[in-house]
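Thanks for the sequence, V.! I ran Tail tube GTA-gp10-like protein right away. Repeating your input here for the record:
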Amino acid sequence: MRDAQITLPWADGDYTFRLGWGELELLQEACNAGPYVILNRLMSEQWFMGDIAHTIRLGLIGGGMKPADALKKVRDYVQNRPPAENVPYAQGILSAGLAGAPEEGEVGESEAASQEPSLTTFLTES
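Predicted structure:
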């Protein structure tokens, strides 16, 4: 099962990031936009500063870091650095939160595929 967790070499070590449902809701509130709007801004170079910082901070919290520690890391390694340096990390963290991390594999997907009709089947039968 995919749980949106991703481990990345970032800042001063390897960190686990996870944007679950609760963190995505907090991100939405903090950035005043839905998660896909934020991801689109990050991917199209139309991001706001908070898109970067909040995504990384909430990802660290979702990955198990205490909120105060996550805030300190973001202050040290995001807010005190050039913004574009952390955009790829925010993109990866949010992408994993929305679609699952690539390294999580395709667990259970082949079994589910054999039980559920595909979109193509649905469209051709309608």
